[in-house]
Amino acid sequence: MTAPGRRSSTFTRLLRHGFTDPSAAERLLDSVELAPMRNDPVLLEALGATADPDLALHGLVRLLEVQPGPLAQRELLDTVIAAKPLRDRLLGVLGASAALADHLARHPKDWQALVTYEPRDLHPGVAEFERGLAEAGDPVALRVAYRRCLLSIAARDVCGTTDVAETAAELADLATATLRAALAIARAAAPDDAASCRLAVIAMGKCGGHELNYVSDVDVIFVGEAAEGADEGKALRSATKLASHMMRICSETTVEGSIWPVDANLRPEGRNGPLVRTLSSHLAYYQRWAKTWEFQALLKARPVAGDIELGDEYVTALEPLVWKAAERENFVPDVQKMRRRVVENIPVAEVDRELKLGPGGLRDVEFAVQLLQLVHGRADASLRSGTTLDALQALAAGGYVGRADAVQLDSAYRFLRTMEHRIQLYRLRRTHLVPNDEADQRRIGRSLGLRTDPVAELNREWKRHSSVVRRLHEKLFYRPLLDAVAQLAPGEARLSPEAARERMVALGYADPASALRHLEALASGVSRKAAIQRTLLPVLLGWFADSADPDAGLLNFRKVSDALGKTPWYLRLLRDEGAAAENLARVLSAGRLAPDLLMRAPEAVALLGDGDGGGLVPRSHAHLEQEILAAVGRAGGAVQAVTAARGVRRRELFRTAAADIVGSYGTETQPAEADQGALVDRVGGAISDLTAATLAGTLRAVVREGWGEELPTRFAIIGMGRFGGHELGYGSDADVLFVHEPREGVEERVAADAANKVVSEMRRLLQIPSADPPLLIDADLRPEGKSGPLVRSLKSYEAYYRRWSLVWESQALLRAEVVAGDEDLGRRFIELIDPLRYPAEGLGDDAVREIRRLKARMESERMPRGADPKLHTKLGPGGLSDVEWTVQLFQLHQGWAEPGLRTTRTREALAAACAAGLISGEDAATLDEAWVLATRVRNAVMLVRGRAGDTFPSHGRELAAVGRYLGYGPGHVGDMLDAYRRTARRARGVVEELFYGA
Questions:
Q1: pTM, whole model, 2 decimals?
Q2: CA-to-CA distance for 708 and 698, rounded, in angstroms?
Q3: Which end of the chain has fewer surrounding CB within 10 Å, N or C?
Q4: Antiparallel, parallel or unpaired: β 197-203 and 302-306
Q5: Residue 402: Cβ within 10 Å count
Q6: Helix (H, G, I), strand (E, B), or coil: what is residue 5?
Q7: Can you say whether residue 971 is alpha, beta or left, with left for phi > 0 and alpha for psi between -120 and 50 degrees?
Q8: Which residues contact 899 (CB under 8 A, 6 or more apart)?
Q9: Least confident of 411-425, 467-481, 688-702, 903-917
Q10: Mean of pLDDT values over 606-632
Q11: Is residue 341 packed enough to be buried (19+ CB in 10 Å), middle (13-18) or exposed (0-12)?
Q12: Could you give the C-alpha distances from 817 to 163, 738, 826, 952, in angstroms and in order?
């Protein structure tokens, strides 16, 4: 008897053998059923070798309890004691699968299915499984026979007799035999239907690929034809009945549960299409309507049941179409987009536990392999395998995938699939989620041979293999391109030039020969620079391919690398800074403007990193003005000073453009900015602040060179139009007014001459041809327009506005804001014009009619010839002009009474009008959406083309790039144009009502 407080030696031994509840185990070992082998050390050793010794022992006792009598119990015990193969198989299954233990408890004699241990039993095929199911004449019997076969598969799996690929193949063969048995039952139930048609069952997905899970939907497609002499319509109806019955036999729940769902949703038109089609109907659909993913799915098509000859005809007919899929427009983006959509649909709470669909999961490997098969399988029939691991091996053998990468992916895929098998085997439930429960993780870890600390080791190995997949699955596509051109050590199979060209075309490169030359220039050689480039380029190529112009992205990257390649920090930045490489790839492939700005001073690439360079956050107006004035102060003369100011402007324009592109495209870690208005405000504010600071610096430089520290007249610059409204775009001129006031004792003429010289010199210096973009100053909104003096004194403005001011000038002054120069003078100018732009009691009827007349005239006279008005962002219906004139009418009418309307900014004024009840929330939202979209389009056009434009580009690639910036994927420019027209049309309806009073 064990002394109180001391544990028995049995208790200790049980702990040592992996039992987690030794007390319960002791009681089970003391049960009557186990009396003959209670003290047999072999039993404990065998239990300790299982995934879950507690579960195995409990299952064994249950199995003994349900044996029909003492002789049956003795037979089972004797076999367990004497036959090691049976002992390992039986206890291995009982320790890994509670569901199969339940099956054995319901069917006590089925343990004998594990006794046979002949060579043919080690790797059974379809024929052996068909024999195992042969006596099943109804759905219930079929389920029992299916699980009896499943027992033997699971036993070989958990004992290590078969590896994960062999297990998956056996499960697919068992599924094939089961589909045949189910179809035979359906045929027997409806012999007339069976006689009138030919029906082929095509396995798809993992069953078709000979790599099935323990519990998975079995994907199928049905092909039907009329039997000789039968009517086709009647035959298809009969085939549909047989197919439906076969699906129910496998899927429906009975007293023995179900087998697995049979899923026919991969058929043409999915759930909406007919369940059974003729071969010609299938062929017509795939020739005309099928999407890229449907050809990807056909990679795994395999006839498994019914009329195999018809099934072979189906595969033969569709095979040429499958291998032409890579020639489809936007092929690679379509496949990658589908993969991203899968990840996006995973519930947030599950994404970190998702073994199959999550980042670094099984689907990443499968998608990458299938993508490569579709690109290169056209020319290389050795790649046409439906089995992922076989295809991966063939890709490596052909040089389409690096051998080292293939080995790592093979190992990761096998580990993740084995994990998936063990998770599903426990309850025979369809799941791909790693359980949270520690006991479940312990069982899974032990089943994989991780015995020291199963939970910690399992999680460590899982994360390691997932990170390998994450790192390699995209690189897999691009790495061999470099090996094909990099002239590295011999011995490794490589892509042929033709295969490399095919892959570049599939990625969307219009000039694959030039692209491969760029890769060769970047990656060849044994230098450290070339080695780092070979590390970076596989990922960069993927990001370039995600743009509308991969060729431009790669060319621009070569230019930047040529300019900075010898700079030690450049490649280090791209390699080590998390965001820098992706940000650079986005910027270089998004259009012309940002790369042009960068090429003029490539060191600005440092802004794209995460480090101390300030990143992509816009600088404040005060910071910009301080930097520019300091640079002007250090310069020797006005030309040098303004050159320095323009250099700062170029760098900050690049920062703004890069931030806009990255925010619009999104990155792998940061989704695209959802608030389009925030992006517009950020760009408008940043460029307006930068323009104001540049003008302030230029003014300081001109005054210092011509007059020293003080100009003989006070001088202020008033921003107008989009400049005054903080809404400048990349291609906007700076609309301004110039105002001066002679200092005490200075003659009016002298002061005016000085002010005019300042303006003339500022305009000249800001437009001198150089590496920096010019800043054009437009003063056409001044009194009398181009006919009036360029600069006026404050008194002259006062006299003019008192006597001659027209209503359009009051409207223009709504945007007036001091941007540079003498603050006090600027403040007094604003005080002068406030009564004009916010007239007491609002506008009279004549003034309102005049504004409407001017607007209608502008729409008819200023629209460019040949332009589509519905797509003109400035003058078209629902465009910028419509929204701005409507808002400005509110300001002129009610600004005197509503302080919120006294702002130069369109969106602020619109929000204030809504808050004041002048416009409904719905109408305000409609106008705001249209204004933001039109502004985004104008910004996109400038970013893409490098020159300003008010309408969508006509060139296909440029239009696609605008779409990409606006969030539309490849092939969706039509959706973009439709969305613009729809948004503008709704806005025009509001304008007709509020502005024109319709």
A1: 0.73
A2: 14
A3: N
A4: antiparallel
A5: 23
A6: coil
A7: left
A8: none
A9: 467-481
A10: 84
A11: exposed
A12: 75, 12, 8, 31
Q: Confidence class of residue 117 from pLDDT cuts 50, 70 and 90?
A: low
Quick one: which H or E segment has residue 893? helix 880-894
Q: Please name every residue paired with 221 in a beta bridge, in sequence order, or none if there are none.
A: 202
Residue pLDDT, tens place only, 833-865:
999 999 998 888 899 999 999 998 888 888 888
645 token code pair:
């100011």
Q: Compute the chain's Rg from CA coordinates.
A: 38
Contact criterion met (CB below 8 Å) for 477 and 368: yes
Residue closest to 715 by CA, chosen among 837, 583, 624, 823: 823
DSSP structure string for 767-818: TS-SSSPP--EE-TTSTTGGGS-SEEEHHHHHHHHHHT--HHHHHHGGG-EE
Lookup: tokens for 720:
């107008």
Q: Would you state the structure tokens that stand for residue 858, as one six-digit string?
A: 């502008």
Mean of pLDDT over the chain: 91
Distance CA 10, CA 313 (A): 65
Q: CA separation (Å) from 589 to 1, 380, 582, 662?
A: 81, 32, 11, 11
CA dist 660 and 943 (Å) reads 10
Contact criterion met (CB below 8 Å) for 395 and 372:
yes
Residue at 299: amino acid letter? L
* Sign of the dihedral through C-alpha 127, 133, 134, 138: negative
Show Cβ contacts of residue 353 under 8 Å, excluding neighbours closer than 6 positions: 433, 434, 435, 436
pLDDT of 347 > 60? The answer is: yes
Of 731 and 881, the one with more pLDDT: 881
Residue 570, token pair as written in the block = 């450049």
Contacts of 747 (CB under 8 A, 6+ apart): none
**Average pLDDT of 398-423?**
92
